[in-house]
Amino acid sequence: MLDPNKNTIPRWVSLLYRYSQMYIGDRLKHFDIGRGQHIFLNSLYKEDGLTQEELSSYLKIDKGTTAKAIKKLEQQGYVTRKLRDDDKRSYHVFLTAKALEIREDVRAVLVEWRNILSQGFTEEEKQQAQLLLERMGTNAAHYIDTQKDQAGVCDESPHGR
Amino acid sequence: MLDPNKNTIPRWVSLLYRYSQMYIGDRLKHFDIGRGQHIFLNSLYKEDGLTQEELSSYLKIDKGTTAKAIKKLEQQGYVTRKLRDDDKRSYHVFLTAKALEIREDVRAVLVEWRNILSQGFTEEEKQQAQLLLERMGTNAAHYIDTQKDQAGVCDESPHGR
DNA sequence: ACTAACTAGTAGCAAATGCAACTATCTGAC
DNA sequence: GTCAGATAGTTGCATTTGCTACTAGTTAGT
């Protein structure tokens, strides 16, 4: 019999990801903000005026995906784009008044979700969880980025690191 | 109370999820196993002969998604389905010899990924990470399932779109 | 100044995913 | 038994996502 509680890290990660998308998507759908957009909106709430390239690299999301998400947010009136003066290839993405209006509501959803996830955690455990996730994320990002740089270079040693 | 610096758990989760999909998908693509299938294959390696419904509920993945993934695995010759005798609505999903042949390779990919994620972790930290993820996953599952049970009971506002 | 290499963003495709509507089977209340 | 409601699975649709190829603007080497 499969024991749902005993499993690998990748399975928990994928479960947490899908549930997060469900929860956040559900809580934001009355703003017409879909599952693909909230992550960008939240990044802009942290720092307005980022370029698409900066959003992509911060979130580690493909630039094509970013372009489509930003395009949709723009069509919905949540952001505007302004061509940079000093580099006509790139755009600054700015939040509109409409986006700023719902800022606290949107951020609150994330805080609520975080609280649901860490229910029953001590403050110390919350910090520990955040830290460990961060370290795993950094490890993953570092590995993937390294691989990408070496794409085409043969065989990797099974020793890793 | 909104704390702007404490809502990053969802961001790390989504990063870890996407990178996991990339890594595993990349390492399994020469078996023609796409990003959507490996999770089902691994569940069946744990326990063969599950029904689609059991797979869906174990992985918390939509039954439509499960149907499509299993269909693809069947077309590729990795699984066969057998109608249950005692319930003609459901199918047992069985691994084929072809799937069993690559079992260790496929499982090894998961182990490798876990090792990448926990690089630089002490044994204690690894266990801690696993445990905290598990607790967060359980919290999430519990919350979402509870919500689902209550859907339609009280609200059901016919307001969509 | 020229041009090759690089970079930001876009477009098109295919796969994956969730949801809702549907079919077929099963269960339980009567 | 019969029929309403639940359950397993399928299908169609819309959204999201990553990849690759492409355009246009920028940088650096000569």
TrEMBL record, chains A, B:
PROSITE patterns found in the cross-reference section: HTH_MARR_1, HTH_MARR_2
Positions of the HTH marR-type domain: 1-138
Pfam families: MarR_2
UniProt keyword terms in alphabetical order: DNA-binding, Transcription, Transcription regulation
SMART domains, per database record: HTH_MARR (SM00347)
Gene Ontology molecular function terms on file: DNA binding; DNA-binding transcription factor activity
PANTHER family hit by this protein: MARR FAMILY REGULATORY PROTEIN, TRANSCRIPTIONAL REGULATOR, MARR
Name recorded for this polypeptide: MarR family transcriptional regulator
